[in-house]
Amino acid sequence: MILILGGTSEAYDLAEALTGRGVPVTTSLAGRTTAPRLPAGLCRVGGFGGAEGLCRWMGENGVRVLVDATHPFSLRISENARRASVSSGVPCLRLERPPWRAGAGDDWRMFGDEAEVAAALPESARVFLGLGRQRLGVFAGSGCYFVVRFAEPFGGVLPFAGECVIDRGPFEVEGERELFVSRGVTHVVVRNSGGSAWQKLSAARMLGLPVFMVERPAADAGADQCDSVDAAMDWIGGRS
């Protein structure tokens, strides 16, 4: 069986490609949303209990190949996958989509982490904060006004002045532009996740807005890696 640590569009595409060839696949989802899209093949939801729990689960379920196709910023999960692979002897592939690249007309400012971004934002800024739920506290006390978007109701109190927009993608460039204009957005903050959610970057370019972007963390130089589903299929095929 192939175990995919998923949640990204690439993970869904890989599960579909593998099941289409009759390969048994289980995709593991973190369970942060209440009604996640279900991948092809089998699906489990929730954590494993660290690298040791992942190693044990793979042994109990006959996993012969592990594919880490989680978000580029999911560092803890990727480290657990690497450790579990070493402990179990199950080969592991890191499938990570390419980062975004700035083009003509883009005004991108690159930062090492969210704390650097928070320190660089002017106090008068009205910021579209596209970082998800996990790193909101970093921006508490910054003096800015933030617009944050979630796929589901937040269910808490924002740690700064701002508002929540509840909406689920995929989004269109014009819709992103209208959102920025209607909320008076002056700055856009994102992580360099890559992938298909680039529409907000195009809208920022159209409006001449600066994008404060968190650099992607360095990849593990010792791990097998690829940046496409086709390449992942080739890698898995060589180990089947």
- How do the strands line up in the largest sheet? 3-2-1-4-5-12
* Rg estimate, integer Å: 19 Å
How many angstroms separate the termini? 10 Å
CATH hierarchy class name of the largest domain? Alpha Beta
Helix/strand-derived category reads: alpha/beta
**CATH fold label of the largest domain:** Rossmann fold
* Helix run count: 7
Which sheet architecture does the biggest sheet show?
Answer: 6 strands, parallel
Quaternary structure annotation: single chain
How many domain regions? 2
CATH H level, superfamily name of the largest domain: NAD(P)-binding Rossmann-like Domain
Mean pLDDT reading: 92
Description:
This protein is α/β, with parallel strands linked by helices and 240 residues long. The chain has 2 domains: 2-98 and 218-237, NAD(P)-binding Rossmann-like Domain (Rossmann fold, 3-Layer(aba) Sandwich); 108-214, 3-Layer(aba) Sandwich (Rossmann fold), CATH 3.40.50. The protein is 30% helix and 22% strand. The protein has a 6-stranded parallel β-sheet with strand order 3-2-1-4-5-12, with helices on both faces. Helix 1 (9-20) packs across helix 7, helix 2 (50-60) crosses helix 3 and helix 5 crosses helix 6. It starts with a strand and ends with a helix. The mean pLDDT is 92.
Topology of helices and strands:
Blueprint: E1 2-5, H1 9-20, E2 25-29, E3 42-45, H2 50-60, E4 65-68, H3 75-88, E5 92-95, E6 108-111, H4 114-120, E7 126-130, E8 145-150, E9 162-166, H5 173-182, E10 187-191, H6 199-207, E11 211-214, E12 224-226, H7 229-237
Parallel strand pairs: 1-2, 1-4, 2-3, 4-5, 5-12, 6-11, 7-8, 7-10, 8-9, 10-11
